[in-house]
Amino acid sequence: MIRRPTVFVLGAGASAPYGFPLGTALTDGITWELTRDESPFRDDLQRVGYRFAQLREFGQALAAAGRYSIDDFLQDRPQFRELGKLAIARMLIPAERDDRLDFNADPRHWMPHGGVPDTRWYRYLFNQLLTSDRGHCSIAENKLTVVTFNFDRSFERALFRFVLANCAENEAQAKEHCSKIPVLHLHGQLGAPSWLAQPSASPLVRPAFGEPPLPKPFAVRDYVPEDIGANALNLCVAQIRIVDEEVIHSAVQKQAVTALEDAEVICFLGFSYNPLNLQKLELPRFARKSIRGTAYRLPDGRRGSIERTFQQADSSGRSKAISLSPPDDHILTFLEKTDVIYD
């Protein structure tokens, strides 16, 4: 049970155990698909309306740039942004699979290195959230908000399935329980989750006063890996936000900053600590909060840089504004060791 107001900030590493590519793998995967001789991936993008020459030009430019993150590339190359969003959606949708969320699924079927170690963490977290008396669903009593930089909906899909199987009589009741744990997609998502709520009923997708209306294709999508037709891809493009000006001062960014301001505890999970992404969270507002974060396989120099960044934003005078986990600790290990979910 999480009793203190807490925010989990999720990066790509949080979804990686469920088969979603990390930043470099996503960039390199798109590059390979767009530059190889025959590619069903490229064929799907052509069906949306792009010509072969356009796709090849984009793939070659992405390869030549050598950026680890396609987001960074698109930030500086506006002519490729819409196509880049399309390619991201086409790469990620096939990984949205219910069978990968099954708690007894074998990760060796989709993870490199035989899925060892097994770093899946949803099951452990959800079991800690559901700790009240038998017959009573305690999920809604947890003071948890999730701010994610990921486009996939695996967290909310897994949570819904867990609640439905454990403490809800029907899908409507499971939806109600899950709504008590807000999931804010700072960069947008692969369609509003169809299993949770219609967009018109959700405060998470309503534009703030003075903002332009949401695009027409803003609609729900199921969690279906085969849904890669032109309509589905265009729907995702309309909901994905890549560049800074699409995120900063958006309704969801304001909600995320408010949640962080109200939190007593902030945990970064699978996060790369990209300075631009930290700016979107308005880092100086984190002062005097308990901040922890995973640092899986980060070298010492990078760890030191992250610690200095948080220290500079902290006015409390503490020597360390963020407590980073050991470099061998993945998210599951971090959660097992932390006291956040046991307070």
Beta content comes to: 5-15%
| Overall number of strands | 8
Tally of individual domains: 2
The computed structural class is: alpha/beta
Terminal Cα separation, in Å?
7 Å
Uncertain ranges: 201-217
| Count of separate DSSP helical elements | 16
Structure description:
There is one protein chain. This protein is of the alpha/beta class and 343 residues long. It has 2 domains: 1-20 and 97-343, no CATH class; 23-94, no CATH class. The protein contains 16 helices and 8 strands. The chain has helices at 12-15, 23-35, 40-48, 52-65, 70-76, 81-92, 98-101, 122-129, 154-166, 171-178, 230-239, 244-247, 251-262, 275-280, 300-313, 331-337; strands spanning 6-10, 144-148, 183-185, 192-193, 220-221, 265-269, 290-293, 323-324. The strands form 2 sheets. A 6-stranded parallel sheet has the order 3-2-1-6-7-8. A two-stranded parallel ribbon has the order 4-5. α14 (275-280) links the parallel β6 and β7 (290-293). It is globular. The relative contact order is 0.15. Mean pLDDT is 88; it is low at 201-217.
Which properties best describe this structure?
343 residues; alpha/beta; 2 domains; 6-stranded parallel β-sheet; two-stranded parallel ribbon; 16 helices; 8 strands; globular
